[in-house]
Write a structure and sequence with these properties.
Layout: E1 18-19, E2 22-23, E3 56-62, E4 67-70, E5 75-84, E6 88-93, E7 96-97, E8 104-108, E9 113-118, E10 127-135, E11 138-149, E12 155-161, E13 166-169, E14 174-183, E15 187-192, E16 195-197, E17 204-208, E18 213-218, E19 227-235, E20 238-249, E21 274-275, E22 278-279, H1 281-284
Parallel strand pairs: 4-11, 13-20
Antiparallel strand pairs: 1-2, 3-5, 5-9, 6-7, 6-10, 8-9, 10-11, 12-14, 14-18, 15-16, 15-19, 17-18, 19-20, 21-22
């Protein structure tokens, strides 16, 4: 302490560098560690400084399973893959590379989905398909089997039994019937004159079964029902039509000769289950039903008496 009352002392200050990983080690001699200059960043422009890049092996995020496609149809195989750098994709069929052509197309959508499209599919396209994704980090792949089903042999519709011209007494039920076959089973369309019959009603109804039998049933025919009727059958292989005329006659109200009721003579038609209540649809469409066993009500008259 000096005479003036001031106090002083001396000492040595050491500064030690600290980085993000902790304190730097002291040098063996006890002197402070000398920090090396930082390496320049990528943006420093030093082209000679090595830059470490990161790579990721391809990984499939989406891949299809085995497929069965009918010959002549379209087949589409979609997949999605990740990786760095962006992987390159190649397709193989039974180990042989697939080259793009008019029937085989390879597309990439904006969402990163890769597609192999085959149209039309042929029998030679059947086999094991392999998709291989490759980049600098490696490669990955998936496989699937494509089965090509034989194309169904199409046959145009053919009428086995055609419509027949028919007459009926006013107020009685009548049927127009035919049978048509085709592969695949054809669609059926009815027309009266130039008017299409698109749906059934309580009085006029359209029926068909799995054996090609077709029936247009009119309950209580009137003069307005008379005319030309056309039925058409259409499938992928073609279309066929036939036409018949329906006549509606006015009934003759005569004094009955006897009290014994008259019955309609059964016909060989599968639609013979007619009564004054109309057509028994269940009986009409049972192939095993014998028309001669069908019981008819007494409200019908002999067809030759019309």
């Amino acid at each position: 302490m000096s005479v003036t009352g001031r106090v002083s002392c001396t000492g040595r200050l050491m500064v030690q560098a600290v980085n993000q990983r902790g304190r730097s080690p002291r040098s063996p001699s006890g002197h402070p560690h000398v920090r090396r200059p930082r390496s320049r960043s990528r943006d420093s422009g030093d082209e000679n400084e090595p830059i470490q890049e990161r790579f990721f092996r391809p990984h499939f995020l989406q891949a299809p399973g085995d497929l069965t496609v009918q010959e002549g149809k379209l087949c589409r195989m979609d997949c999605k893959v990740s990786g760095l750098p962006t992987p390159d994709l190649t397709w193989q069929l039974d180990g042989k590379p697939i080259r793009p052509d008019s029937a085989h197309k390879m597309l990439v959508r904006e969402n990163g989905v890769h597609s192999l499209i085959i149209e039309p599919v042929a029998s030679r396209d059947a086999g094991i398909y392999t998709c291989i994704a490759t980049n600098r980090a490696g490669q990955n792949s998936f496989s699937l089997e494509l089965v090509v089903a034989a194309k169904e042999a199409h046959k145009p519709p053919v009428f086995i039994e055609k419509l027949q011209n028919t007459g009926v007494a006013d107020g009685y039920p009548v049927r127009l019937e035919c049978r048509v076959l085709g592969v695949p089973p054809p669609q059926i369309f009815w027309k009266k004159e130039n008017e299409s019959l698109t749906h059934s009603t309580d009085r006029v109804s359209m029926h068909q079964d799995n054996h090609g039998y077709i029936c247009l049933l009119i309950q209580g025919a009137t003069k307005e029902d008379a005319g030309w009727y056309t039925v058409s059958a259409k499938n992928e292989a073609g279309i066929v039509s036939c036409t018949a005329r329906l006549d509606v006659y006015t009934q003759w109200h005569q004094q009955p000769q006897s009290t014994k009721p008259k019955k309609v003579r059964p016909s060989a038609s599968r639609y013979a289950a007619l009564s004054d209540q109309g057509l028994d649809i269940k009986a009409a469409f049972q192939p095993e039903a014998n028309p001669s066993h069908l019981t008819l009500n007494s409200g019908l008259v002999e067809s030759e008496d019309l």
